[in-house]
Structures are given as structure tokens and as C-alpha cells.
# Entry
Amino acid sequence: MITFKNCSKQYGTLKALNKVNLNILRGSLTFLVGPNASGKTTLIKSLLGLVKPTSGEIIVNGRTLNGDYDYRKEIGYVSQIANFPENLTVEETFRMVKDLRDKQNNYDEELISDFHLELAFDKRLKTLSGGTRQKVNVAVAFLFDPNLIILDEPTAGLDPVASSLLKDKIMKESKKGKTIIFTSHILSEMEELAQNIVFLLEGRVFFNGTIEDLINSTNQQNLERAIASIMNGAEK
Amino acid sequence: MKILFKIIKYQFHDLSRSKWIIIYTSFFFLLSYSLFTFNKDFSRVLISLMNVVLIIIPLVSTIFGTIHYYNSKEYIIFVLSQPIKRSILFLGLYIGLAIPLALSFVVGVSIPILFNLGNIKGGFDVLIFLFLAGFFQTIIFCSIAFLIATLNENKMLGLGFATFSWLAFGAFYDGLILFLLQILQDYPIEKLSIALSMLNPIDLARLLVVLKLDISALMGYTGAVFQKFFGGSFGTILSILSLTIWAILPFYIGIRKFSKKDF
# Structure
């Protein structure tokens, strides 16, 4: 469904992405891991067209990205930090988001009720806590029932209850055949979800495969140790 | 097109509830109200209004515009992850900011005028031109603000440039012109001074109002030259044209940069 071909992105002298070749299959659940500044967010943003790669190309659903915006119809994106116009109420924010897209017959509002966001419907965005704002952000991404869901550190700022609700939702959507990509730097938290692991380090794909492959290839007991051993190996 | 109106609509919803917009409107209301209380002569009220308006509108438009853009950054990223064209979003954010600001000014100034309608004899053409000048100041300095914010990721740097551009057009520029005229006083410099005043949107807006008032003492050097060279109506058209270019140019560069930028 998604193919990165020799994708590089350079900011000044910093290589945020360094010749990334990556293939993400339709219906897969991919966990994008890597230490800080390893290029996770740049990878995701270039997929969304927010960042334009210096070289290489990205193909989504058979279409090479060239500045067109139509392909984003099928994408739901949860950014690291989200914010909406601060004087709008939560209800107006949802209305706005629906308004900005083409009309759809059924919206997926499951997370709105799971997160009990109705209780905050008449509150203005600027009065909400960071966690509630993140709940709005997450609920918005699932609203359009998109085929491709991209979550960049979605659980940051969420309490354990909300975070497990989100994980349940991710599993459920994955079982429906949706393609899902998410990142987190807390490995243990997301381990249970991931089928595929893509490990990024200094802008390069270091490992791409299933969790079992990763653990077996490094002879470690769990994901965290396996990744630590890869990182140690890379430093040497 | 539909998307553009929707973006503007929600910007409007948001900003109309912003306490800064409410303070800005009440400032113009109080200013215009107190000027009417102390002064019975409508044209004098308009002159005093003009002098304040030409300082305050550029200041608020640049600073508030820059801050507004920076505060909307996450929202911009959100909208850009939707199937929406970048230039449409930029235009929407811009119009959604400039219109509420311009309306604040017009509404704030108009209410006291409506109260005092009985005492006013004539001068409405000048009022129209004052509104026009305020409108141009708003759209010009909002587009400068958006250009600065688009070019600078660093908030502090952007705010610094915004403040500087206001100071440059509002204060330094006049000083520079006076200084130049002083040095070059032995030469025919009328054409130079016309060219110089066209390079400053605040000067242009002042000319727009002053040419209507026909008070030569207030015109300053460039105003007098304008009057002499072009006469009233041609001078007006010329300054409106230059103001339009001033609004479009920074906006155009801004929208080009915005369309190519990484977020």
C-alpha cells in the first residue's frame, strides 16, 4: 500500500531520512520504533505530504506523491501535539472537521463516546487539559473511518484508561483490515499490538520484520532488549 | 471554493470570541467616543482618529497576525493532513484574520459616529477614506505578518521582525526621508520623494486621507508634492493602486513559500 523508494530528507547538514526503502502492506499493523531524532516523525510527515523529501519517491495506493492532496482522503492522522482553534467548543471542532471533508454517510464516533467526550462538548478547546485535547485529536482521526491510520505518539498525554481504550480501538480497526502505522518510544507499551516492527536509526531503516524475527535474530528475551542490542551494535 | 469559505467561517467563529479582538474593538470605540466628546468639529475628530489609526492598526495587525499564525501551527498541520490544498488554507487563514480585524476597526469607530449623527455636517467622504485607509493598513500588515511568520520557524525571531517592520514603516522611515530631504535640499527632489513615499504603506494611507481633507499644513512634504504633481483625484487613485500592490506582494510571496514549506 505504501512504498518508500530511496527516500532522503536533509535539513541543512542533518540527514533526517537517509535513503529509506520501505514497503508497508495493506492491512498490516506497523510499529515504527527508534530513539529520539531517528526520523520517525519525518517519515510520517513525508508520507502525509507535510514534508517534501529531498530525493526519492513515495507511492501511496499506487500513486506517486507529487503535491496532490486527494490521496489524503483515505488517511487519518494523529499528530504528536494537536490543537484546534482555541475558542471553538469541542462540539464545534467535530463539526468543523466534518465540514472540512466531503460529506460521508456514517462517521465512526465510537471513540467520542468511549472517551466520554460528550461531557466536554460545550467546553472551549483552550480550557481543556492536555489529555482531553489529545482525546479530541485521536477521536477526530478515526472519525472518517479511514483506510490508513497513522498515529504519531498517540498515547503521549493519555491516561492509562484512555490509552488502553485506544489500543483496543487500534486492534479492532486492524482486524477490519485497516492499514495502521504508529510510533512510540515506549516499547513495552505498544509491544502487544505490533505485528511488524520497523526500526529506524539515524534516518535509516535498521530492521523491518516481525517481532519474533527481531527477538530471534538478536537472541534476546523481549523487544526492549532486542532493540537495545541492535542499538549497541550500531554504535560499535 | 467551498472549503475556503468553511475555513474562513471557523476562523471567524474563533476570532470573534477572542478577548483580544474584543479589546481591540473597544479601544476604537473608546477612542472615537472620547474624541467626539472633546471635539465638536467632525473633520478634527477625523484627523485625530487618522493619526492614531495609522499607528495602532499596523502595530496590532503585524503583532497579532504573527502570534495568531504561530498559535495556529498545530491546526495548520492538522488541516494539511486533510485532503485540502495548501494555498486554500493560507488564503483562508489570512482572510479569516484580516476581516475580523478590519471589522473591529470599522465597528468600533462607527458606533460613536452613529450616536453623534445629529451634530455632524458633511465630512462623510473623508470618513469613507479613513475606513479605506484602515482597511488597507489591516490587509497590508496582516500579509506582512503572515509572510514573516511563514519565513521564520522561530517564534521570537518572527515577533522581532514583526515589531521591527512596524517601527521601520511607522517611525524610522519618516526620519530617513527628512534626513534625505535635508541633505539633498539643493537639488530637485520632488520625484524622489514621491517614489520614497510609495515605498511606505503608512505614508500612502495617510496621503489617501489627507488629500481628501485638503489641509495643506497636515500634508507634509510628500503630501504637498503629491497634490502639486497629480492633483487630488489622480493622487488618490495612485495611492490606492500602490496600497493594493503593497497588500498583494507580501501575500503572494507568503503563499508561494507556504506551498513549498516543510511542516
Q: What stands out?
A: Chain A is about 35% helix and 25% strand. Chain A has a mean pLDDT of 84.
